[in-house]
């Protein structure tokens, strides 16, 4: 299933927007674009909401016919337990996270222990925990932890854009993680020369215009055949003013949706 996530609304949610978009507003916009899946990922207000506010947001998603996934950072068992509670409220079947959180940087041995402590509860609830590929942990080490824990409810959230900062090749990341992938973050990326030819900027690009070989990912992972959801997000730099930035963000979303839909036929 193709979905949108909060990173597709990064600037629309931000306090730099003239009228920041609420979470329910993002739900409504997602549905208006003919999309049935939304991933609430690294959305800080979610953890500050009261239980009543969370239930209201979940009810709004259900009324709109949206399937919800959740995303956070860190694998401290108490934190993962809280997100399992939130998943129950939203009827979410997947939680995306990362090994490192804002206040925790476990060793690989600690990470394995913490995941073993948490994953049985996820199995019992029928919820998948998907750990994202990113630059702070080499992909091979992340794969090794997941394989050693050995749970069908533990896998990879595949985002090959992140691992370039680890000097990994995105295509190699895809190949290493294909069998374990449970979720995909979809965005294109590219390098651009800095003014004066003194280095590069690595940033987002409109889907289909950058370096991401998405056809290779589709062939290796086979997400449509395996029922793996593809979540659109962006790395869009600020475009000098709010109006231009938000307009570009929305254009990138439409481009990404058109691109993904064109590959399903």
TrEMBL record:
Keywords noted in UniProt: Carbohydrate metabolism, Isomerase
UniProt cross-references to InterPro entries, sorted A to Z: IolE/XylAMocC-like (IPR050312), Xyl_isomerase-like_sf (IPR036237), Xyl_isomerase-like_TIM-brl (IPR013022)
Coiled-coil annotated spans: none
All copies of domain Xylose isomerase-like TIM barrel, residue ranges: 28-255
One MF term in the entry's GO annotations: isomerase activity
Pfam families: AP_endonuc_2
Key word Plastid present: no
Record-linked PANTHER family: HYDROXYPYRUVATE ISOMERASE, XYLOSE ISOMERASE
Full protein name: Sugar phosphate isomerase/epimerase
Source organism of the structure: Microbacterium luteolum
